[in-house]
Design goal:
With 516 residues, this protein is mainly α. The protein has 16 helices and no strands. The chain folds into two domains: 454 residues, no CATH class; 43 residues, no CATH class. It is globular.
């Protein structure tokens, strides 16, 4: 029972009920031990980077809200449409990239360490016969002198040479192609897509919505490429570099927004142009930094991981389509209730997503650490990591609920001065704040499942969740209006959290070791 790390876990920490992993070592949840520090070093920069873009969108929303409620509603529809179409490509690409790069980097690191160990052993300064550090017989040629130069050179070369990570090269190629396809699709289909979203041909929202969507779509290649690059860095457990790049891009966006919107009088078009410029800046910074670490030119096309990406990416694509359809349908139903309802829904949705994405930082940390642990079959660390990130997610969700419950009432006027929009925002606040613990757990469970490469379950379970949630939206929206939308979204997130609990709680799939 002591042959490997997994066996050590089973011998030392038998778990009769797999669900107990959720409460394992709960008293240590805030302790900055080795695991706590590793999670914090990945999660904090990742959370800040993930929330930077929604915060930039909130700034866009605040500036555009000063133009008028029609423009605010129009941009809200366009942002919802752009984000949901983007998620169809982004989410599978980033999630698969993070797991694959983490696995390849872990295996490569173990291999490099093994090679370094061999070099050190072959160039050892210990005399095998006398066990002395320095041979007494000066006439005998020093073996250290013979081996030190080539061995030191080889070790330095192993440490400093750029790595070949096939998944990184594959992700960038796929991201670039998908970005071009998305841009062409959105630009050529802007009007019918907006009509599907509830913006009719005679609506005052149509022209500003179409202008914003068309211009912002020009940045789709940069969005896909930058997020593929972020997935690579996450796989390396480096979330600081994406944070710096994202902050630089979003500060550029915030500075350019008032310049283009008010000084150059470009209105919603100016907001879109500022956002596109910021996305290309982020991509350039990340690509420049990655070229220092990784040789992105593979030895041949055969070394790329296209087949592996497509197989697992397709599973997550199914999942994302289901998730995307739920949120897009909710936005569409809000738009059909009128520009006032859509404007209020846009504000609540942006706040809801921006704060919930803080939990995605924990999901990123959990995914990267778990992918590495599963690659080494270190089930002890896998169980401990899953427990810690889920417990931290619940604490974060409770803190966000309290913060939003108090703060959103005071901050609503930052987004609109229209009394009717503010009234609906106040109605949505209990849902936005109250669902934060549920949202946090749902997002963290995503990272846990992806870290275990449990892509098939993640896809199938979310399809079932989406079916139930779509039915709730279609029933509750006509009967309860704006409130009905948020009741349905609450049900949706609750089901997402439940299927995560179910997988670990039953000890099935990659969590089989919890039942031993």
């Amino acid at each position: 029972m002591m042959a490997g790390d997994g066996d050590i876990y089973l011998a030392e920490d038998r778990t009769t009920n797999p669900i107990s992993i959720l409460f394992k070592d709960a008293r240590l949840v805030l302790k900055l031990d080795e695991l706590g520090l590793e999670i914090a070093q990945i999660a904090l920069p990742a959370a800040l980077a993930l929330t930077a873009d929604p915060i930039a969108s909130l700034v866009d929303t605040a500036f555009i809200g000063q133009i008028g409620p029609v423009e605010l509603a129009a941009v809200g529809v366009s942002i919802a449409l752009f984000n949901q179409v983007s998620r169809i490509a982004i989410f599978p690409l980033v999630s698969v990239t993070t797991s694959f790069v983490a696995e390849e980097d872990t295996v490569g690191r173990v291999t490099r360490e093994g090679q370094e160990s061999e070099y050190l052993e072959s160039g050892s300064c210990i005399n095998s016969e006398s066990k002395e550090l320095i041979p007494k017989n000066d006439s005998v040629e020093d073996p250290c002198k013979l081996g030190s130069l080539p061995n030191s050179f080889s070790i330095t070369k192993l440490e400093n040479e750029r790595r070949h990570i096939p998944s990184a090269s594959s992700a960038l190629v796929i991201g670039g192609i998908l970005g071009l396809i998305q841009a062409i699709f959105l630009i050529s289909s802007a009007k019918p897509l907006l009509k599907f979203m509830g913006v009719s041909s005679d609506s005052p929202m149509l022209n500003p919505a179409q202008q914003y969507l068309t211009l912002r779509s020009l940045g789709a290649p940069a969005v896909l490429l930058s997020l593929a690059l972020q997935g690579v860095f996450r796989g390396f457990k480096d979330t600081k570099t994406p944070l710096y790049a994202t902050v630089a891009g979003d500060i550029t966006n915030i500075v350019l927004d008032p310049l283009f919107i008010f000084v150059f009088r470009l209105g919603v078009s100016g907001a879109a142009i500022a956002h596109v410029i910021s996305q290309y800046l982020i991509s350039v910074i990340l690509l420049w930094r990655l070229l220092v670490k990784v040789d992105l030119l593979p030895p041949s096309v055969k070394h790329l991981q296209f087949g592996r990406f497509l197989k697992n990416g397709f599973l997550l694509l199914v999942r994302v389509v289901a998730v995307t359809f739920c949120v897009t349908l909710a936005a569409s139903l809000a738009a059909r209730q009128g520009s006032t309802s859509m404007a209020a829904f846009q504000v609540c949705l942006q706040v809801w997503l921006a704060t919930s994405l803080l939990a995605d930082g924990l999901a990123v940390a959990g995914q990267a650490i778990l992918a590495s642990a599963f690659a080494q079959k270190d089930y002890n660390k896998a169980a401990a990591t899953a427990s810690r990130v889920l417990q931290l997610g619940l604490i974060l969700g409770l803190a966000l609920a309290a913060l939003l419950g108090l703060g959103l009432h005071l901050g609503a006027r930052l987004f609109s001065s229209d009394i009717h929009v503010l009234h609906l925002i106040n109605i949505g606040i209990p849902f936005v704040a109250g669902t934060q613990p549920i949202n946090a757990l749902a997002f963290v469970f995503d990272g846990v499942n992806f870290g275990a490469s449990d892509f098939a379950y993640a896809a199938c379970s979310l399809v079932m969740v989406a079916i139930v949630s779509i039915l709730c939206l279609l029933v509750l929206s006509p009967s309860h209006g704006f409130i009905g939308l948020w009741i349905a979204l609450t049900i949706y997130m609750s089901l997402r959290a439940f299927v995560g609990v179910w997988r670990i709680g039953t000890g099935t799939g990659p969590w089989f070791f919890l039942r031993r």
